[in-house]
Amino acid sequence: MKVKEPVTEYVKLDKEGSYTYLDYLRFQFKERVELFRGKVVKMSPAPNRIHQTIMSNLGRELGNFFYKKSCQYFPSPFDVRLFPLKSGKDNTVVQPDACVVCDEKKLDKHGCAGAPDLVIEILAPGNLRKELDIKFRLYEEAGVKEYWIVEPANKTILLYRSLDKTFIASKPFVEGEDVESILFPVLKVPVTEIFLNVK
């Protein structure tokens, strides 16, 4: 879906308001935000060292795996417009910690227009409800095919695959095992590598 360029005026935020992606492009906040079904949601403060270490580890493993392949790996910050949801409105914009997109037609200069094939989120103390409930449901409804939740506290990976737009959980992957993607059968990432230098 082609996105019109935003006009130069800026949106004034109303707590009761409902916003679209075009509004999102005009936002001028110091903090990064996401848009959940038209509602503006602040992202957590700057990620901590553990989060960034995991991001770096994932980038090395997945970046190398998808290098020169048709599917592309994108780390945050990267806008993903999840539409159409049931509402049919272009009013949900998320920034997953990482994602993989295989359909090149979904990619434009703004990011990804539609559901990525694989989404990865890293849990932090302040975002548990957002990642385990709100974004889980958004990704499920939008048709994300595989969702990894990285849990630093227990050094585990929770993997969900989509079956008719309903997420089905696999067993948790722990240190000493490989995360085995269902969507990409050749992709096997050692959990120990994901949590390397995480203390």
Describe this entry's structure for a reader.
The chain has one domain: Alpha-Beta Complex (tt1808, chain A), CATH 3.90.1570. The N and C termini lie far apart (43 Å). The protein is globular and about 50 Å long. The protein is an alpha+beta fold and 199 residues long. Strands 3, 6, 9, 10, 11, 12 and 13 form a 7-stranded mixed sheet that branches. The protein has a 4-stranded mixed sheet with strand order 5-4-8-7, with no helix packed on it. A two-stranded antiparallel ribbon has the order 1-2. A hairpin with a 2-residue loop joins strand 1 and strand 2. The model is unreliable at 5-11 (pLDDT under 50). It has helices spanning 21-26, 49-66, 128-142, 191-194, and strands at residues 33-36, 39-42, 72-75, 80-81, 93-94, 98-101, 107-108, 111-113, 118-122, 146-151, 156-162, 167-169, 173-174, 178-180, 188-190.
Question: What is this entry, summarized?
Answer:
It contains 4 helices and 15 strands.
